Amino acid sequence: MSSKFGLDYAKRVAKCKKCQQQLLKGDLRMWRMVPNPFTADSGNPTEMKNYFHSDCLFETLIRCRPTTKVIDSPDDIEGWDIANDDDKEAIIEKIRNLSEIRLKKFGDKVKTSISSPSKDSIKPTISNEISSKKAKDKKVETATSSRKKIKYETAEENPKELTSEEIRDDKTNISNMKNEQSTAQILESNETNDSIQKVGSKFDMFTLFCKLCDVIASVSKYTEKTAAVKIFINKEGYDGDLYLLLKFLIPEADQRVYNLKAKQIIKVFSTLFDWSVDELIESYNQTGDVSETICSFWSKLAGGRKKSKITNQMVDDWLEKLSELTREKEQQMHFSKICKLVSCLELKYIIRLIMKDLRISAGAKHILEGVKKGAYEMFQNSRNLQAVIEKCQCTDKEKLLESGIVLNTPIKPMLAEPCRSVKQAMEKCNKEMFAEIKYDGERLQLHKDGSKFMFFSRSLKPTLDHKVIDLNKVISEAFPTSRDLIVDAEMLLIDTNTGKPLPFGTLGIHKKKQFKDAAVCLFVFDCIYYDSKSLMEKPLRERRKFLEDNMKEIPNRVLLSNCHLIKKGENHKLEMLVLKTIDEGLEGLVLKDLDSIYEPGKRHWLKVKKDYLQGGDMADTADLILLGAFYGTGNKGGTMSVFLMGVYDEEKQKFCTVTKCGNGHDDATLERINKELEPKMNKISRIYENLPEWIECSRSLVPDFIVIDPKESPVWEIAGAEFTRSHNHTASGISIRFPRVTKIRDDKNWETATSLQELEKLLELSKTKTDVKLEIDNAQSLDTNKTDEEDDGKVSIAKKRKREAISDNSKIDEQAASDEEIIKKAKIPCKYGAQCYRKNVKHRKQFIHPK
Questions:
Q1: With contact defined as beta carbons under 8 Å apart, do 452 and 446 qualify?
Q2: Any idea which architecture 416-613 has in CATH?
Q3: Which residues form the ATP-dependent DNA ligase family profile domain (predicted)?
Q4: Three state DSSP letters for 26-37
Q5: Which tens digit of pLDDT belongs to each residue from 735-787?
């Protein structure tokens, strides 16, 4: 065997002969000449290079027999001159360490060409005595005066005989110590070498976290998932960082943003390891899990470490650094560092932490219930995981039962579920309820801490400054009390001339400039914290009174929500209120039981909207043609589960896109559709240039699959909340909000489906307000700045907001029949008239068909 050795810097990706991990481009690599097995039996045998990481090569040389030639000095290394100073210094140190270990193992049997260091140039660096039966016990002290003191230790704390087997299996040699030093450099840690050696609790090893996730994912029952967490943290001697463990197990609680999605991660790894992007995307489309895709490739081509010493804290530090990086090259370099440290399993869960989806089918509730009873409720209230853990570790049970509200920490808002009918609303009403105007704005949570104010959005993130900067000037005037409080509200732009709210989305920094006579207005509807006490357990009637007593209304800037008292059984009154709300172009109503408490994250309110009362349909459905399909993610990975729907433009003689629809099909139907569509689809992998000429589609909506012949494509009936405008879609910019498939129209084809011209008419019809005229004596317009005086006087309303009731109950009863007749006559004319082809009952009830 040749004894030639050398080094260079990798020009392309290659594997280390020892650890099978990839040597990345630009990395230092060392090589060793060995006989070429393909020419060994020929008349002219040749040699070939085996490449290694420098640490791996010296670990290999440690195992060599005493008579085998190893690297004794830099003169034995070809290409030494091209190495930079840092690498030269590190290799010289490895050569010295190799000589010392071989001297201890083999004694006089091995000779070294390195001269004995002088006393002036040596300082003691070896702290542990290594005994040997063949060699006398002694301390070997080496290191040049130009280097720092480095303490090298064996795996055992107590000195004992070091055998070659221990060196091989446990890697208790100097290069292992150098690996730990490179770990610190990779993570850009400021810790000392001693602190790097100290791993901390064995329960903080990241590999244990990964195995725990696998266990949680492997069981199906939520009680078993909770039990898995409970068993892990209650193991004998558990002293791990509980907060960091739960922070990883509940990734949605981590507010860090990593600026990486699945396709960006694929691009990073394809560049880093010189993998085929197309193959990665193909695999991702099949699995729907980018972490599984990356690790399947990595295990085949790179391997990863079999044993890893990386800890939860090291991963958290790495993620913190990643959140600060936005450039692609910086992200690639950062990933290359962690890849040198982790196993394949660990890399998979690191990617899942970045994606904020561990894929273990366990939410915060199931995880926190394994910590302590009541922990999840506290977390729901405060969303402050650190505070929850501190209270869970407290032995006082009463502290765990507190609300968990922390001022200036956002609370998950209470939500509303759709209400399909007035009857359903009355069934859920105990005695009385508030019917509040549903404002189509942005949910906002205001925290008042003395004279300081903080605003949080529905997603619990701080609200953008440009949206609330105008409110800062009036909030202190609206809440003059010096006591702390938290209120729930809706923020929207309001026309200062008419007092009417402007459409959703106008709060944007550019859109807002288009409205000169508009101001940001805060409609406050709940108070959940007052004077350092939680009001969440108080009934709504009391919380409303706190608002009225402690808030001063400022016209067009800060107002109480407009609400009406509805008693159980007043079905007609609620129906009239809903119709009147819709007639004035408002979004709908929110119904709240007066005795209900505030439950963060729960959908115990009801929301009544026009499309809900119409069975979840728009004023008219659209029969759209299936033009393309997208791969699903998660459980639907590898299947077509989101579909590109469109219409035919008769003028351009092209098909145009209207919406992407992924709702409406159950799993069985979706499976059947995939089988039917497979022979009718062409895979174009979202490549714009592969689009056929018959379709007009924006680059952002290019699907994974396109139909081969749109004239043979199925037609589906699509319903939604409303028609909207979208620059991404090519059907005159018309799209559908919250689309869902309501019916597969086997009786229709591309010619009888809704055309672009018909779709434009539907859009115009949807803009038309209902023609319902409520001929009720003393009926008041639903002024968004006003509220009604309640009939029974049980609920107090601010003096300035007292109004007459919509009508006395007696008058409503007397006129009920006539009102119903008016509503019946107020149907919208169908665009097809007497020639309408629609036979369904819903359509006939909604539209009239004059001859």
A1: no
A2: 2-Layer Sandwich (3.30)
A3: 513-649
A4: CCEEEEEEEECC
A5: 998 899 999 998 889 999 999 988 988 888 776 544 333 333 333 333 433 43
Please report, for residues 201, 208, 253, 441, 841, the alpha-carbon distance to residue 821 in angstroms, rounded to integers and kept in the order given.
76, 70, 53, 34, 19
Does 3.40.630.10 match the CATH number of domain 622-767?
no
pLDDT digits (tens, 9 = 90+) for 219-263: 989 999 999 999 999 988 888 999 999 999 999 888 888 988 888
In the chain, where the domains are located: 5-174, 416-613, 622-767, 814-846
**Region of residue 192 (phi > 0: left; psi between -120 and 50: alpha; otherwise: beta):** beta
> What are the CA-CA distances from residue 829 to residues 207, 585, 755, 771 (Å)?
66, 19, 19, 11
Cβ atoms 442, 516 nearer than 8 A: no
299-323 tens-digit pLDDT: 876 555 667 889 999 999 999 999 9
Helical segments of 740-779, H only: 756-767
How far apart (Å, rounded) are the C-alpha atoms in residues 501 and 493? 6
Distances (CA, A) of 70 to 88, 140, 560, 731, 848: 17, 20, 84, 73, 96
Where is pLDDT greater, at 615 or 273?
A: 273
The tens digit of pLDDT for each residue in 521-536 reads: 999 999 999 888 889 8
The class that CATH gives domain 5-174 is: alpha beta
The pTM score is 0.53
CA distance 643 to 340: 41
Rounded to whole angstroms, how far apart are CA atoms 569 and 429?
9
Residue located via tokens 């092209």: 654
List the one residue out of 185, 208, 204, 283 whose CA is nearest residue 244: 204
Longest CA pairwise span in the chain (Å): 116
- CA gyration radius, the chain: 35
- What is the Cα 144 distance to its own chain's centre? 51
- Residues acting as catalytic residues: 438
